[in-house]
Amino acid sequence: GFTGYNGYSYDEAVEEGRQLIELARAVRAPVVRVVSGPYAGHLRKHARRLLMMGLEDLLPEAQAAGVKLVLQPMASTFREWTFLNSLDAAVSVLEEFRSSHVGLALGTYHLIREKNLLEKIESIGPWISSVQVSDWVPTSSDADRRFPGEGKLPLAEILSAIESTGYQGWYELEVWS
Predict the structure, then answer these.
(1) What is the DSSP string of 90-135?
(2) What's the Cα-to-Cα distance from 137 to each of 49, 112, 117, 132, 177, rounded to whole Å?
């Protein structure tokens, strides 16, 4: 998070990003997931500017390492982690930043509340660079993720839509429960 919320200054967040890029290079990971940080008292424009600056500062190292930086939008219940709480918010950053080394990380859990999800996936296909898979059951906890097939998400349709865009990358299983 580049907004200074979780005890990191902007410079510390960028340095951590550089270390993660080097780790990704060492283990041949294709992506490093980027979480913007919350608004943390910043005006929306300023928080967005901090994210854009962070991407710009990390981009040369990512390019040199052959690693893609991927933005992780999260459900609105995770506002303490990111102000990118929808696909539209993340895509607007990608449209403005315009780099082939910056993409999108999709987490099926975080897509629960997206309207017209399957149509959106079709339109964002070129940016999809990482996919986290988990299922979901309605609870009052953020630990409501389940193994695929044990919840309420239309995972087969979501994954089919992702693959129909030409995505051929890795899938991660993410279960916090």
Answers:
(1) HHHHHHHH--TTEEEEEEGGGGTT-TTHHHHHHHHGGGEEEEEE-E
(2) 35, 10, 18, 16, 10
Which positions ≥6 away from 107 have C-beta within 8 Å?
72, 74, 131, 132, 134, 174
Q: Which two tokens stand for residue 1?
A: 């998070």
- 106-126 confidence digits (pLDDT tens): 999 888 888 899 999 999 999
Residue 81 · residue 40 · CB < 8 Å: no
The strand pairing partners of 32, in sequence order, are 69
Q: Quick one: CA dihedral 79, 90, 3, 143, positive or negative?
A: positive
User: Within a 10 A sphere around the Cβ of 51, how many other Cβ atoms?
Assistant: 23
Q: What does the pLDDT look like over 17-55, one tens digit per residue? A: 999 999 999 999 999 999 988 887 888 898 999 999 999
Beta partners for 84?
none
